[in-house]
Design a protein that fits this description.
The structure holds 4 protein chains of 4 kinds.
Chain B (H helix, E strand, L loop, with lengths): L2 E14 L2 E14 L3 E5 L6 H8 L7 E10 L2 E2 L5 H7 L4 E4 L3 H4 L6 H11 L5 H14 L5 H4 L9 H13 L5 E5 L7 H18 L2 E5 L3 H7 L2 E6 L2 E7 H6 L4 H9 L40 H5 L5 E5 L4 E4 L3 H6 L19 E15 L6 E16 L3 E5 L6 H9 L6 E6 L2 E2 L10 H6 E4 L13 H13 L3 H14 L16 H13 L5 E5 L7 H17 L3 E6 L2 H7 L2 E6 L2 E7 H4 L6 H9 L48 E4 L2 E4 L21 H4 L2
Chain C lengths: L13 E5 L14 H10 L4 E3 L5 E3 L2 E6 L5 E6 L13 H12 L7 H5 L4 E9 L5 E7 L5 E5 L2 E5 L7 H4 L26 E7 L3 E6 L13 E5 L5 H9 L5 E2 L7 H6 L3 E16 L8 H10 L2 H9 L3 E3 L22 H10 L6 E7 L4 H17 L1 E7 L2 H7 L5 E6 L5 H8 L14 H11 L4 H18 L2 E2 L2 E10 L2 E2 L15 E2 L2
Parallel strand pairs in C: 1-12, 1-13, 16-17
Antiparallel strand pairs in C: 2-3, 4-5, 5-9, 6-7, 8-9, 10-11, 11-12, 13-20, 14-18, 14-19, 14-20, 15-20, 21-22
Chain D lengths: L1 H27 L3 H8 L5 H10 L6 H13 L5 E2 L4 E2 H36 L4 H15 L2 H15 L17 H32 L2 H8 L4 H30 L2 H6 L5 H11 L2 H29 L6
Antiparallel strand pairs in D: 1-2
The chains are: A mainly alpha, B alpha/beta, C alpha+beta, D mainly alpha.
The complex binds adenosine-5'-triphosphate (ATP) (2 copies) and magnesium ion (MG) (2 copies).
């Protein structure tokens, strides 16, 4: 996981661009839509993400089998067939169904984790950047200490201590990403707090919180949205890696990384069990990456 | 006279997914050997595109759709990449607006200079080095050899621009293209650069294409001018002809919108051009200016292409107008009507500043050890009066904004007083001021791009202060928003727009409306129009003038533009290095006796006048605000410095009634040389047809 | 003798096995089979339990017990010498026995001899919670008695049936007293090899003893252990690229792959090895009908097939395996979901129950088995959440979790297992199960040296477990591992004890 | 510069202190764990208690922490309960292996990503740029374990060209360098994918700068401009990121090391975490954190050296 450096790059790229460079014509959604459709890369990315979201949402209706339904009779020949389009796994569970239901897990845990990080990061970053002084020093110091841990090591020690659960994974990702988001937000805040419209807000007597959240924050959404999607991608990988290392989400509910982990000893004979969930992870990451890259390019182009 | 650069019916288009867009349309001109053509026009009209086309270097997506561009007789479009490389930097060279970003930040400037000869035939490094040093000396950079080792960021803006000019001149090109080479520089530095260009031109006989949005600077450098509007050249001719007897309504409008040093006070309004330029204007079949033109006739102007016609073949005065006769016969071009400045020193003082100082403490990057302090403002005394304008002028960094921010409470003073209604506010940040005091002082900011929050609508920008400062309920606030919009002449549907959907001028109007929302007693405006085009600027200034008259508002107006100050101010304070060196009623400040600095400023100010006298260039630049100044702050640059006195002893304040000058010189009316226009020289009015 | 079955052994060659290379410096406190497998090459045991679960002489040539099973006499071999030249005598055996039975040594052998020659006492100190602390000591100064240079007597205070089996408990390696309980490169031993290189986490190298070994073999010159980590797939990769000749223990997830590799063979043996889903007597499992329902809801055949790819035997929900000598066949409980539901309803849970089972991710078959069972239970209305803990964490809590899935290693006798895990108050009675009749019957069974007598009692014990026992025993797993076909003479031991002295290479 | 370094080093020491205490407190608040770990799951509570007292684990955390730090400063990080070895011996050996793998990977990744990134960013949105961008985004989107598994399937099982594990012993029938091929390849795909994108975007940004236009319009050829003016500027921003890869390579190779049974630091940490080998976790964390901070310091210093605008 190169996340530390991903993050660093993301924050550099983010702060290099798009601060207050945009605004909405038709509300934020319309804006996103228009930006997304403007960039082919973003369109591809958004399509992939949306497809997975839809599948996840409609899982009970579109998945051909219950995800945990075991049929040991199928284990002898788990290859794709007319009944099981993507084959079954080593317990005879339908891979397609597990993928679809697994999308639910991935698409809840990863976004919640990232959102948690974003929310905490936004709060600390705004406070740090806008208030400055001791608050800034303390927040940044604590953040630096957290960042000094290589992420995977942080995951490992925390999960080794508290065990693997969706909650712990979310907590640990939130904890390790929030300082970086705080840095991005702080950078943007330092820039924006000297803008004239903030001065104007002060001159009419807005409270500090109002200024932070209403005047400053919306203008940081460009970098934050880009960062969100990049981070979503890498969080998906991180969850996969944890699953692969055997400290991921607990079974039996399908989790893509866990599916790879469970089956990769059989890659030599039944590669589909490993490759299909791997491709699912990659596709989601690629989707998020493309969307982020496309959004950034679109924003840079104005 | 041999032709160096020729544009022949050049059209350039930009292709994007949204379709094709005309950027330049049928542009033709010729620049001969040793000749200088100035190209003016408002932002976005295509000036830079002309420059880049002359280098055969168009941005991605732009292409030459029609016409030819010749350099020394060779069609650029037919040259191979190699041939182009040989011409660029050798026969044609270019200087850009922003010198800092035109220089490679990680390469010493010496290297960057030497590359020019080394790329064009020179093989000997030593020789290239010598030539670079020689050229640096030529552009009057001190200690040229030592300069060679420096990185761009180690030079001041003026020095950087000199380096860029030196780089362009290294190969002694036949054609020098300068795209807004002085925008962003201080008046005094600008004056020096313009003088330099003139000298170099005389010396090397280089043909020059000089691009600027400022008619004044063009007048200083060029003998011919071209006026560009929406990608079309609308008028060309010699400076004298065009300035004295402009024909095209747009040219006339531009000249009319300009405040002049010689011009009158704001009570005589400026004349902005009606309407604004629209993107669609570039695609018009007929005259692009027609929608804004009072002479426009449907058939002549809109339904067929309008061509350039010669008015005065000898003077090469060409105009693209279908209604020349009507225009010439119609109203004459007029500057703003002169009217006496009637400074009212009886007007009540709403805000007074006494002995105000501000130091910025510099801390090293990691906190802790101090690296000294910037004395941004030192011992300033001023008064703002109801219904009057107090203007503050001075070069960049002299502390104008700092002063403004202290008054408005965005900064707190180190010492001194800012008294509003008898209460001292100097040490109270705006966040801690009582709501009523907060309401009484409002501010208009310089940059239309950052004055409004891009994330919130116009209605939001106006509603919030109404709710907070005047406690209006949301229904009342809504009505009041509409009233405010109307007050600044904006249609009510603007309320729902987002800032990026407004032009710069419109945004600035919203900013003014926002400042007025709380019924303030004092409005501080920090360079409110300096980022706007002339015509828009004129409209805003008129608006401010009107508002001043309607209300008993005290306006503190900050500007570096003397002509503007002349137009707007009732009271003027001239600042230098954080101190007020001259203060008084506008009329008195703009007529002798002068502080030597005021005088230098007046002389340096570019004026659109072909007959303006050569400027006196101030040597050097402002001392660093961290230095300790014993004597007069201006001593280091003052042409009339008295050695041994000025640099050791603080100057006394000499008073002429309300007019104060802080100077050692015995000041009397005789000794003070009258500045260009204020001295009552022949202005445009007298010479126009 | 097993060597003979495959033709004449050839001399020479190297065998490399993929196995964790652990710290091996304190044999008497080994808690992993892997470390014992290193020690085993250099050191011997007093007895040996074979792959057929029959315990045979080793350093002890012959043993006899008094009818009350309280006194055991061990006759040592007289022809054994230490590699460094000294003769092996009763003093050596006694030194080792006393050392492992000393509480301070921290050997798990203590558990096997508690009650027999060890007794608990209050050592006057307090434990962490402030309760009086219990230590153990020999019940009598003469408990381990030297009869002569080659005879040792164990004088117990109570009957013990499984002394020969206990003497093969894997930490009970016989060290040279001169090494002071430590083991490492160059240590003395009575075994077939000498340890010449040992790097934890990397590898160990053993070379054949040059002066000859008393017990036959070794055939190979050199035996190497290479640490490939815990990842099963990595081990298979190494086998595929012939970086090792054999891997210590197969993982079920790699079995399909191995079956496809022509140069590899799967070695497998049925065992009494299992993992049990065990309950604590708290709601809802305080009701025996709920526990029964759990058993009725389980389809052991399916678990075996899904989790172990059919290697092994379906479990019978009592903890005595067909491979145990005293096993009594009391029939097989067929899955009956309706019955399970009925039992639940009777117990007052007509809508089923919601429970959480704790499990660990290694070995991989366990989690598979849990997942399969959970799916099966679901049909009967026992809705189960799986909580997976890392192994380390599981072992900290294994006796505390209310419902868990716990591995039980193979033990040669059924009574040994039942005594360890189901007797009231036994240290490893993770189920906190207590049944007076069961205890009584168990003690009775432990008193019979005669297998048939024991079997009769065992049938009753098994019946009790089936009716009201605290566990679901889904399978008797076969243990298996993989080796290159060039390796001959190797038979997998139910406890996966590796004895390099028996193997040879026939390329 | 010197002052700056000294200041940063002091900062580092403080952070290390904080980190060590955090990890220590997290792991050793419940003293029973260690002894239980030593004795294994089947030991009786009395045995555990006995050992706990014997090891001095019943004393207050702060006292033990002080003692731990005292020893740690002298290079003694305690013993691994799993490996029953001094942690220092164990750790440095593994760290050495990982550094070797990191160095080789670094030597492949850095030139590769710089070359591809620069070539792509040189002509923004050209076909090569598009191709490289898509390639790099794909690479960075395929988790290492997935990539590892694919490559294993191809090169080990199907083609049989490469060994499936890398225990770093030459006597297993495969030469040492063959054992490095797969791990390096997996790391390279994943990491280079990301670095290429980084270098590319920096190059693109530089190519948009006015000074590039200045150089071109001086009459310099496009390639001359790229070499002389764009390259150094384009590498300033990625420089720190490139250096940070070292940090990733040291502690982030867990997946690759597990996949190929490579006896490295990452795998050691994973095993320590799974087996709660506390002394190893503590020492390993300190090492990993030091590496992170050192690379950051070098990154900052290098950044200053590359960019004359930044002076401290
Ligand atoms: N790279 C580009 N891509 C697309 N359109 C462009 C590009 N550069 C400039 N334009 C458009 O071309 C028109 C002319 O631009 P140009 O830069 O020549 O104007 P200008 O007169 O130099 O303006 P300014 O005074 O602001 O420098 C503008 O409308 C601008 O929006
Ligand atoms: N936050 C600050 N910290 C340190 N020095 C400052 C700060 N803000 C301004 N200065 C310095 O104080 C002096 C006055 O700055 P100020 O912004 O008031 O000048 P100004 O006259 O408004 O210039 P301009 O015309 O460029 O806007 C300058 O030398 C500037 O560099
Ligand atoms: Mg321009
Ligand atoms: Mg200012």
């Amino acid at each position: 996981m190169t996340e530390i450096s991903h993050d660093l790059a993301a924050s550099r790229l983010a702060s290099a661009s798009l601060v207050g460079a945009e605004a909405a014509d038709a509300g934020p959604l319309g804006k996103v839509y228009s930006v997304v459709t403007r960039s082919p890369l973003a369109t591809v990315g958004a399509t992939i993400l949306l497809t997975w979201c839809l599948l996840a949402l409609l899982a009970p209706w579109v998945a051909p089998y219950p995800p945990n339904q075991i049929d040991v009779a199928l284990v002898a020949d788990p290859h794709p067939s007319a009944q099981h389009w993507l084959g079954v796994d080593h317990l005879g569970r339908d891979i397609l169904s597990r993928l679809i239901w697994g999308a639910r897990t991935v698409l809840t845990v990863a976004p919640i984790a990232v959102l948690g990080a974003v929310m905490l990061g936004i709060f600390l970053g705004l406070l740090s950047g806008y208030r400055g002084g001791m608050i800034d020093v303390v927040i940044m110091r604590v953040g630096d200490t957290l960042l000094a841990f290589p992420k995977i090591i942080l995951y490992l020690i925390i999960i080794a201590k508290f065990g693997a659960s969706a909650f712990n994974i979310i907590a640990v990702i939130t904890l390790s990403s929030a300082p970086i988001i705080a840095r991005i937000v702080r950078g943007v805040t330092l820039d924006i707090k000297n803008r004239d419209y903030v001065a104007a807000a002060r001159m009419r007597g807005e409270s500090a919180f109002f200024i932070m959240f209403v005047e400053i924050l919306p203008n940081a959404r460009g970098p934050l949205i880009v960062d969100f999607f990049l981070r979503l991608g890498y969080t998906t990988i991180a969850i996969g890696v944890l699953g692969f290392l055997g400290v991921g989400l607990p079974p039996p509910d399908p989790d893509w990384g866990g599916m790879v982990k469970e089956a990769y000893g059989m890659i030599f004979v039944w590669p589909h069990m490993t490759i299909i969930p791997s491709l699912a992870i990659s596709s989601l990451v690629i989707g998020a990456n493309f969307l982020a890259t496309g959004l950034r390019e679109a924003a840079l182009d104005g | 006279m041999a032709e160096v650069l020729a544009f022949e019916h050049v059209s350039i288009a930009y292709d994007s997914r949204a379709g094709r867009q005309n950027i330049l349309n049928d542009v033709s001109f010729v620049i001969g050997e040793g000749e200088a053509l100035g190209l003016v026009g408002e932002s976005g009209c295509g000036k830079s595109t002309v420059a880049l086309a002359a280098m055969h270097y168009l941005p991605r997506g732009m292409s030459l759709t029609e016409g030819r561009i010749r350099v020394e007789g060779r069609d650029l479009a037919r040259l191979s990449a190699d041939e182009l490389s040989r011409i660029r930097g050798n026969r044609i060279a270019m200087v850009y607006q922003d010198p800092m970003s035109s220089l490679n930040p990680v390469m010493p400037i010496g290297r960057q200079l030497m590359e020019v000869p080394l790329l064009h035939g020179e093989t000997d490094e030593r020789a290239a080095f010598r030539r670079a040093v020689a050229m640096l000396e030529e552009v009057r950079l001190p200690a040229a050899e030592a300069m060679m080792e420096r990185y761009p960021h180690q030079l001041s803006g003026g020095q950087q621009q000199r380096v860029v000019i030196a780089m362009a001149l290294m190969a002694e090109p036949a054609l020098l293209i300068m795209d807004e080479p002085t925008t962003g520089l201080d008046v005094t530095i600008e004056a020096a650069i313009l003088a330099l260009v003139r000298d170099l031109r005389a010396k090397f006989g280089t043909a020059i294409l000089f691009i600027s949005h400022n008619l004044g600077t063009v007048a200083r450098v060029c003998e011919r001018i071209g006026v560009l509007y929406a990608g079309r050249l609308v008028e060309t001719g010699s400076i004298a002809t065009v300035f004295r007897s402009p024909v095209h309504p747009y040219t006339r409008g531009l000249l009319g919108a300009l405040p002049r040093l010689s011009g009158g006070h704001r009570r005589g309004r400026l004349r902005p051009i009606d309407g604004t330029i629209q993107a669609a204007d570039r695609a018009r079949l007929g005259c692009a200016f027609a929608p804004r033109c009072s002479f426009a006739a449907r058939r002549d102007c809109e339904e067929r292409p309008v061509v350039m016609v010669a008015i005065d073949a000898a003077a090469q005065h060409l105009v693209r107008c279908a209604r020349i006769d009507a225009v010439v016969a119609g109203s004459a071009v007029d500057g703003p009507p002169a009217s006496a400045t009637a400074t009212n020193d009886q007007a009540p003082i709403v805000l007074s500043v006494r002995n105000l100082s501000k130091e910025y403490r510099l801390t090293s990057l990691f906190g802790g050890d101090r690296k000294g302090a910037v004395r941004a403002v030192t011992g300033v005394d001023l008064d703002a009066r109801a219904g009057e304008t107090l203007a503050i002028v001075g070069e960049s960094g002299c502390g104008k904004s700092t002063l403004a921010r202290i008054i408005s409470g965005l900064l707190t003073a180190t010492s001194g007083e800012v008294t509003l209604d008898g209460v001292d506010l100097a040490g109270i940040s705006v966040d801690d001021r009582p709501p009523d005091t907060r309401r009484r002082i409002q501010m208009v900011f310089q940059n239309p791009d950052s004055t409004l929050n891009p994330s919130h609508s116009i209605a939001y920008a106006l509603t919030r202060p109404l709710r907070l400062l005047r406690d209006l309920a949301s229904g009342e606030a809504k009505a009041e928003v509409l009233r405010l919009l109307a007050q600044v002449r904006l249609p009510s549907e603007m309320a729902d727009r987002m800032p990026h959907q407004l032009s710069g001028g419109q945004r600035q109007r919203v900013a003014i409306a926002r400042a007025l929302a709380g019924n303030p007693g004092v409005v501080v405006a920090d360079e409110p129009v300096s980022a706007l085009d002339v015509s828009v600027q004129a409209a805003i200034l008129n608006l401010l003038g009107e508002l001043l008259e309607q209300s008993q508002l005290g306006l503190v107006l900050i500007s570096h533009d003397l002509a503007l100050v002349r137009h707007m101010a009732d009271w003027v304070a001239v600042m230098y290095l954080g101190r007020v060196v001259e203060y008084g009623p506008a009329d008195q400040v703009f007529s002798p006796p002068y502080h030597p600095y005021t005088q230098a400023l007046l002389l340096a100010a570019p004026t659109p006048d072909p007959d303006a006298p050569p400027v006196v260039v101030l040597e050097g630049s402002m001392p660093s605000p961290t230095d300790t100044i014993l004597g007069c702050p201006f001593a280091s640059r003052c042409p009339e410095r008295i050695a041994g006195l000025c640099d050791t002893t603080p100057p006394p304040i000499r008073r002429f009634g309300e007019h104060r000058i802080s100077c050692h010189l015995e000041i009397d009316a005789e000794r003070a040389q009258p500045p260009a226009e204020a001295g009552g020289r022949t202005g445009m009015r007298s010479s126009s047809a | 003798a097993p060597a003979m079955a495959q033709g004449m052994p050839k001399k020479g060659g190297i065998v490399r096995i993929g196995m964790r290379v652990q710290d091996i410096s304190n044999p008497h406190t080994y808690s992993w089979i892997e470390s014992a497998n290193s020690g085993r090459q250099v050191l011997d045991y007093l007895t040996v339990t074979g792959i057929d679960n029959v315990t045979r002489p080793s350093l002890v040539q012959k043993w006899e017990a008094t009818p009350d099973l309280k006194t055991w006499t061990l006759h040592l071999r007289r022809d054994v010498t230490w590699r460094k030249g000294r003769k092996f005598t009763a003093d050596d055996a006694i030194w080792n026995l006393k050392r492992v039975l000393d509480d301070k040594t921290g050997s798990s052998v203590v558990g096997l001899f508690k009650g027999f020659i060890l007794t608990e006492f209050d050592d006057g100190q307090k434990d962490a919670k402030g309760n009086p602390r219990k230590s153990v000591r020999l019940w009598d100064a003469n408990a381990v008695q030297k009869v002569d240079d080659f005879t040792v007597k164990l004088n117990g205070q109570s009957a013990n049936l499984s002394i020969p089996e206990s003497l093969f408990h894997y930490p009970l390696l016989i060290l040279s007293p001169e090494d002071g309980g430590k083991f490492g490169v160059g240590s003395d031993g009575t075994g077939a090899f000498e340890l010449v290189e040992h790097e934890v986490g990397k590898r160990s190298v053993f070379t054949a003893r040059k002066d000859g070994y008393w017990g036959g073999g070794p055939y190979i010159d050199r035996f190497e252990i290479i640490d490939l980590g815990d990842d099963a797939a990595a081990q298979v990769s190494a086998l595929v690229s012939k970086q090792v000749d054999m891997i210590y223990q197969g993982a079920i997830s790699t079995l399909p792959t191995i079956e496809k590799l022509t140069h590899i063979q799967v070695n497998s043996v049925d065992t009494g090895y299992t993992a049990v889903a065990r309950t604590h007597p708290i709601k809802p499992f305080d009701d025996k009908r709920v526990r029964q329902a759990l058993r009725y809801a389980t389809d052991n055949e399916a678990v075996l097939k899904g989790a172990l790819r059919g290697l092994g035997k379906p479990g019978e929900h009592h903890h005595v395996a067909p491979v145990h000598p005293e096993y009594a066949d009391i029939g097989y409980l067929k899955r009956d979901v309706a019955k399970a539901k009925a039992l639940l309803a009777e117990a007052g849970y007509p809508n089923g129950v919601d429970v959480t089972i704790d499990a660990r991710p290694q070995p991989d078959w366990e989690l598979l088995a849990v997942q399969i069972m959970v799916e099966q239970w679901k049909e009967a209305g026992i809705r189960t959440k799986i909580n997976v803990m890392p192994s380390a964490q599981y072992w900290e809590n294994w006796t505390k979790v209310p419902f868990g899935f716990t591995t039980w290693a193979h033990r040669p006798l059924g009574t040994m297992i039942l005594g360890l895990a189901y007797r009231t108050g036994a240290a490893w009675n993770e189920a906190n199960w207590s049944n007076a009749e069961f205890d009584k019957l168990l003690t009775e069974a432990e008193g019979y040296l005669d297998v048939e007598k024991r079997r009769a009692v065992m049938a009753k014990l098994e019946r009790i477990m089936l009716d009201e026992g605290p566990v679901v025993v889904p399978v008797w797993r076969a243990v298996f591992n993989f080796s290159d076909k060039k390796i001959k003479g190797y038979k997998i031991h139910p406890s996966i004890y590796i004895d390099a002295k028996d193997v040879w290479i026939d390329a | 510069m010197l002052r700056y370094s000294a200041k940063q080093l002091l900062n580092m020491a403080l952070t290390l202190f904080a980190v060590s205490f955090l990890v220590f407190a997290l792991n050793e608040l419940s003293p029973g764990d260690v002894a239980r770990k030593v004795l294994g799951p089947y030991a009786s509570q009395s045995q555990v208690d006995y050992l706990t007292v014997q090891m001095g684990l019943d004393r207050p955390v702060l006292v033990r922490y002080a003692e731990y730090m005292g020893k740690a400063l002298a290079g003694d990080f305690g013993d691994s309960v799993v490996f029953r070895q001094p942690v220092s011996a164990l750790m440095f050996d593994r760290l050495g292996n990982t550094l070797l793998l990191a160095a080789i990977s670094f030597a492949v990744i850095v030139p590769l990503s710089i070359v591809l990134g620069v070539l792509a960013g040189m002509r923004e949105r050209g076909w090569f740029d598009r191709a490289v961008s898509v390639f790099s985004s794909m690479c960075a989107s395929i988790p290492e374990f997935a990539m590892g598994v694919f490559l294993l399937g191809i090169f080990v099982v199907w083609l049989g060209w490469l060994p499936g594990t890398s225990p770093l012993r030459s006597d297993t029938g495969w030469s040492l360098w063959m054992q490095f091929v797969l791990p390096v390849l997996v790391v390279t795909f994943y990491d280079a994918g990301y670095l290429i994108a980084m270098v590319r975007s920096s190059m693109v940004e530089v190519m948009r700068q006015p000074y590039i236009r200045t150089a071109l319009l001086k009459g310099m050829s496009f390639h001359g401009v790229v070499r002389r003016h764009a390259l150094r500027n384009a590498l300033i921003t990625p420089f720190t990121v490139i250096l940070l890869q070292l940090n990733y390579l040291v502690s982030g190779l867990v997946v690759v090391e597990t996949l190929f049974a490579y006896p490295g630091f990452g795998r050691l940490m994973l095993e320590a975490a799974l087996t709660k080998d506390i002394a190893v976790i503590e020492a390993g964390t300190l090492i990993a954190v030091s590496v992170t901070m050192l690379t950051q310091l070098f990154g900052d210093l290098g950044y200053m050296a590359l960019d004359p605008r930044i002076r401290v």
